[in-house]
Amino acid sequence: MTTPIETWVAGYRRAWESNDTDDIRALFTDDAVYRGAPSAAPWTGIEEIIAGWLEHQDPPGSTTFEWTPVATEGDVSVVQCVSGYPEGDKGGTYDNLWVVRLAPDGRAREFTDWYIARPRS
């Protein structure tokens, strides 16, 4: 049986690859808060999240992604990820921890990405 966070991460990856507004909208509640880094100013509300996402989008097929769930307690899940950008401005590999608070319908109410760039060899 698929867990809510597994379903959500699959949807996130689908949206990451498509940059389709419907795919993005399906991930977040109307009043969600999205933090691209713990201390970053958040994108608040679905329209601001969509606008921010599209402004910072990655071209489809330009990234690699692996993930594993770390912990879930109630509506909060922590996910460990490795994101790769073989080319471009972001070029490199990043270790990520995502903290995701899901609403009862499976959409995220809060999302925070904690990321660290791996040293380039």
UniProtKB/TrEMBL annotation:
SUPFAM superfamilies, per this entry? NTF2-like (SSF54427)
> Which residues belong to any copy of the SnoaL-like domain?
10-110
Residues annotated as signal peptide:
none
Q: Which InterPro entries match?
A: NTF2-like_dom_sf (IPR032710), SnoaL-like (IPR037401)
Name the Gene3D superfamilies on file: 3.10.450.50
Protein known as: Nuclear transport factor 2 family protein
**Protein species of origin:** Antiquaquibacter soli
